[in-house]
Amino acid sequence: MDTKRTVFPSQGLPYLLVAPQLIITIIFFIWPAGQAVKSSFEREDPFGLSTSFVGLLHYLRLFQEPDYLASVGRTALFALAVTIISMGLALVLAVAVNRLIRAGTAYSTMLLWPYAVSPVVAGILWWFIFNSSTGILPYMLEFFGLDWNHQLNGTHAMILIIVAASWKQISYNFLFFLAGLQSVPQSLNEAAAIDGAGPFKRFWTIVFPLLSPTTFFLMIVNLNYTMFDTFGVIDATTAGGPNQATNTLVYKVYTDGYIGLNLGSSSAQSVILMLFVIVLTVIQFRYVERRVQY
Amino acid sequence: MASIDLKGVRKVYQGNVTAIHALDLSIADGELVVLVGPSGCGKSTLLRMIAGLETITDGTISIGEDVVNKKEPAERDIAMVFQNYALYPHMSVRQNLEYGLKNRGTPRDEIDRRVNEAARILEITPFLDRKPRQLSGGQRQRVAMGRAIVRQPKAFLFDEPLSNLDAKLRGQMRIEIRRLQRSLKTTSVYVTHDQLEAMTLADRLVVMNGGRIEQVGKPIELYDKPASLFVAGFIGSPPMNLLPIAALQAIAGGTMPNLPTGTDIVGIRPDEVVVGSGEGIALSGTVELIEPVGGESHLYVRVEGLDQTLILVQQGRASVGEADKVDFVLPLAALHGFNKESGLRVD
């Protein structure tokens, strides 16, 4: 790779130019993250007058707390469901749009809109649709004898946040899958067609394996998304309830820390989440960056 | 093994763009036919229509006894070698070769036999377990050929298979393709824009221009008797000199031979022009440039009164230098007559 080098007139200028971004990163990301790590090892008295170092106490307690362990399982279910649903549907849509010759751009544009909707609004949209007294979906489900109520039924609540979170993420996945599909050379498809493979077989033996870098990348990004960015969706729809049924790890950080004011435990939880992201990021850089050559 | 017959084949793209005008062509069993022409002449489109990758607007294409117009590429029992090879990048060479056979439910031992046989013929046995990206251009080209021959199809279709190779390798592969096709005796259609490749490979040559066939015949027949101005200019390197009679008459002074009526352009191959004196139309000019190719020299000569530069080929070294005056003769027997209006040969 040939990199373009820019020569700056003075040594200070490059630092000045990156300073705004650095300052924002330090104030809003690095410093709070450091504070979280620090307070995860400390206990504060109820009046905030004294703090004492307690070591790994918060961490050890977390792993003995049934609520926390249940939340881990719940989060895993939620993350997997959202990742599989949003990636699966996005792939189907991308394949469909990729086959279009003329209207492709129009469909792509429309399919991208949900991504521009903020998580809270997306949550409220689905909350309206699923609302047990006024929503359209419960009304229709009634014909099948199903009494929808996510305010009382934990499973219903989980389905609601999975649907809302997946819907928002499809756009993102769709865009990447479409780009991936378009970079698979047409001649490979033609060669496979001559080699006697039908459209379905061509997709699974030629196109899908060639998409694997995209698929892997999206899997990591989606897991990250469900772990963190779904706070808004959950807060706007179920607020973790009913009876903890939708209290995922990221939401629990908030409820324990801000509602329960148990800052030590909440910090420990966010540190664990942070470690999880770091691991995912390392995996991504190590494996995704290896490119597949066409 | 099969013949290929095209009858009144047309291709019209959306927006009424005609790529192929009603075209007839018969390719005999075991024959290697080369479609040659400039970019956009419709040669690749025609090949893709035979393969089933493009629809046919009108006419019929038959392979063997069957009309294949409505058949899927897979059902036509043809194999194609693509310009970019189109090897499956995530599969090993062996898997690339096996793919078409597996899809057709060929028994395992038969697959192994054919793959090993093809690998042996093409000398790619050492690379069978490598991925295509670990191979050089020439090796990839062989794998692409291998993928075609393991199938033992009715016909091979080649879409400019050598254009991504360097000149030396291209020459080698050309000979190998010819040898392979002779020994397998599989009907082949080969598309190229390289007239040298076309001349040396073809049993029969089809020169195309603007979606139409200009001339069909043995390469040497086309060289000796080009049917049109286009073929005259396209086949042969360096190209034929095409000179307007009127201008020639004005400078050569009176002694014009009796040419058939309707002739207004004469053509002469650069290697048929005789430097010095002799029978024929005597001309003289100034040497602008000499290209020493090695075994022969190409002289670019400017003649007073002619718009274009004449090309002369001299065997060995040039007998004159650049900027020198040179006398030369166009022997009458070597002249080709053409009509400017129709663009056709006049005999």
Provide an overview of this structure.
- The complex is a heterodimer of chains A (294) and B (347).
- By secondary structure, chain A is an all-alpha fold.
- Chain A has one domain (54-288): MetI-like (MetI-like fold).
- Chain A is 72% helix and 2% strand.
- Chain A is built from 13 helices and two strands; from the N terminus they run H-E-E-H-H-H-H-H-H-H-H-H-H-H-H.
- Chain A has helices spanning 12-39, 57-62, 66-99, 104-116, 119-130, 136-141, 154-182, 186-194, 199-210, 212-229, 231-237, 249-259, 263-288; strands at residues 42-44, 51-53.
- In chain A, strands 1-2 form a two-stranded antiparallel sheet.
- In chain A, strand 1 (42-44) and strand 2 (51-53) form a beta hairpin.
- The two termini of chain A are 18 Å apart.
- The model of chain A has no long low-confidence stretch (mean pLDDT 85).
- Chain B has nine helices and 19 strands.
- Chain B has 347 residues and is α+β, with helices and mostly antiparallel strands.
- Chain B has two domains: 4-228, Rossmann fold, CATH 3.40.50; 241-346, Nucleic acid-binding proteins (OB fold (Dihydrolipoamide Acetyltransferase, E2P), Beta Barrel).
- In chain B, strands 6-7-8-3-9-10 form a six-stranded mixed β-sheet, with helices on both faces. A five-stranded antiparallel β-sheet of chain B has the order 13-17-14-15-16, with no helix packed on it. A four-stranded antiparallel β-sheet of chain B has the order 2-1-4-5, with helices on one face.
- Helix content of chain B is 27%, strand content 31%.
- Chain B has helices spanning 43-51, 93-103, 108-122, 137-149, 167-184, 195-201, 219-224, 229-234, 245-252, and strands spanning 4-13, 17-27, 32-36, 58-63, 66-67, 78-81, 155-159, 187-192, 204-209, 212-217, 241-244, 265-268, 274-275, 281-292, 296-302, 310-315, 325-330, 336-338, 345-346.
- In chain B, strand 14 and strand 15 form a beta hairpin.
- The chains are: A mainly alpha (294), B alpha+beta (347).
- The A-B interface holds A 185, 187-188, 190-198, 201, 205-206, 209-210, 212, 292-294 and B 51-53, 72-74, 78-80, 82-84, 86, 88-90, 99-100, 103-104, 133, 147, 151.
